[in-house]
Structure formats: C-alpha cells, structure tokens
Amino acid sequence: MIRRFSNSRNTGRRLGSALLLSGAMSILGTQALAADLTVAYFPGWPTTHQLGQDKGWFEQELGMEVDFREFDTGAAMAAAMLSGDVQIAYSMGVIPFTIAVTQGAPLDLVGIAVTYSENDNCVVRDGSGVDTPADLAGKVVGVPFGTVSHYKMLKTFEKLDVDLSSVRVVDMAPPDVAAAMTRGDVDMGCGWEPALSRMLENGRLLVSAQEQESWGLKVFDIIAVNREYAAEHPDRISAFLSVVDKSTDYVAANPEESLSTISRQAGISEDQTRSIMAKFGFPKRDEQLSDAWMGRDVETFIKGVADVMQANGELPKALDDYAAFIKPEFYANSAAR
Length: 337
Prior knowledge:
Layout: E1 2-4, H1 18-28, E2 37-41, H2 49-55, H3 57-62, E3 66-70, H4 74-83, E4 88-93, H5 94-102, E5 107-115, E6 120-125, E7 140-143, H6 148-159, E8 168-171, H7 174-183, E9 188-192, H8 195-200, E10 203-205, H9 209-214, E11 220-226, H10 227-232, H11 234-253, H12 255-266, H13 270-277, H14 285-288, H15 297-311, H16 329-334
Parallel strand pairs: 1-3, 2-3, 2-4, 7-8, 7-9
Antiparallel strand pairs: 4-11, 5-11, 6-9, 6-10
C-alpha cells in the first residue's frame, strides 16, 4: 500500500524546530493506522527497498500487512513516528534525526538506508569570479539551512579556511538554488539531486565528493525506528532489514529489470533513476556493522553534526554523545533469519 503525505521532496531532510514536530503531530494523530506496520519513505528518492516493496517481500517476510506511506519532509516523518502512526522511517535524513533525538524523541537508528556523497555538494557558478576558496569573500551562497548540505558547506569552509562571516549565506531550497544560479543571483549553491545536476549545468564543484569523504564528510540517510515499537517487536525490525538486504542483492543481480520497477515506485523516469542510483551506495549487514558505519563512525558523525548545529544556533545544546540512539543489534540479528 502507498499513501501520499506533504508536498516537497526538497525539504526532506529538514526539521527546523519542535513547533514543526508538534504541528505535524496534531495532524497525523487524527489518522488511523490501516496496517500492522507502517513505513515512511521518500517517493522521488530511488532506493533498492522499493524493489522489495513492489514484489511484496516485506509482507511475505513479516507475515503482516505493510503500509508504505510517502512523506516529503523529515519533520513529518519524525512527527508521525512520535505519534505512533509510523513505526519505521526508511531514508530519514541525519539532520532531522539528530534534532529530534537531541530534543528527547524516543527514536533509534538501526541502519543506513543509502549513501550519496556524490549526490550532495556545492557548486561554484561559472563567471562568479570564484577561482579559489579565498575568492568566496563577499559572495552570495545559497543553501538549505538545517540540512546535511548546510553541514557539509560549513565543514568545507572550515577545512578551506573560508571565513563564514565574509560570505552572505542565504537559506534556499535546492531547486531555488539551481534557478538562482541560472539567473546569476548566487555565486555558489549547495544541495542534492536532482537540483545538483541543474547547478552543474552552470558551474563546477568547489571540492570533489571524494576529497570531502577523505575529511570524514559522509552523506547518508538512515533507517530509524520508534523505540517502543522496536523494543516490543525486535524480530519485525530485523526481518525488515533482512528484506532490505535481499532487495539490494536482487537489484545488483538484475539491474535493468530493477531499474524499471524502482523508477515506477519512485515516480521518476528511468533515466533519472539510472543517473541518481549510479551515485548511490547501499551498504549491507556486514558493512553496516563495521567501524565505518554503526560500529563507530556514525556516532562520531552525528555528534559532529550536532556540535556544528549548536555552534550555529540551530540547536540549543548538543548531547554529550549519541551512542544510546544507535542500535546495531537489529541488523546483527537479521543474519539469523
């Protein structure tokens, strides 16, 4: 089953304040559950789980009805999970998750949905006069505040010794950034696909994704769960993760057939799906449990995000650590199925 909620994928990683959470909760709280398990996901974001969704594998493995409900904002996803209306969020952004749990939300990270460092970056506009990082002084930069794109920009500026106070940074959704670059209204824009490709039609990357990754700047979405539900039904969470990996294996073995299915589920063209997924990574169980992800680096990354958000006034106070919100045991137990 598929349900549609909200109106823009472009704000999918944003969660500006507790007011957004409470407002969305008041709406979602009036909706009755229509399935044994409800999973939130982003419709225009092509991922391997949509193959298993299309084939009914989640229902088969869990032995129950699974309702895949479309959401277009991280705020709405988190709110639905807090209200109990949604039990699992597939491909929730790191920023909304970090803000939610910092504010006390009983959510846990149980997996990495997708990695996409090459799908999220900053582009310098042709003709802007920015040939070196030092040239950014006095320039205008468009970026969606409170997102991983914003975090990457801040950390990139820090690494390149760009004085943030010397740059005019404007809060803009990625499609608006791409349009502003076309008009020449901004000198640099940051965001994710598909807007990133439109930005690149008028410019070049400030720093490659590979170089940013060498600094530890990963970009990924997560699989989050309602903590109470997961504690009551751990086998269901592990079974869900098993199907995610089964779907990833099938896509790798049957790329062309899967492309058609995923593009239909995502609601975008096959060409778009091929282009976007070529830059995606879908780590499976063993990689998920390694130090590169839930074994160590995810906690370090989330703590770094929270500290930067606190320093920039987007969080009142970061937690001392985020280990309590990272639960690799669900993926570990998926191997026993």
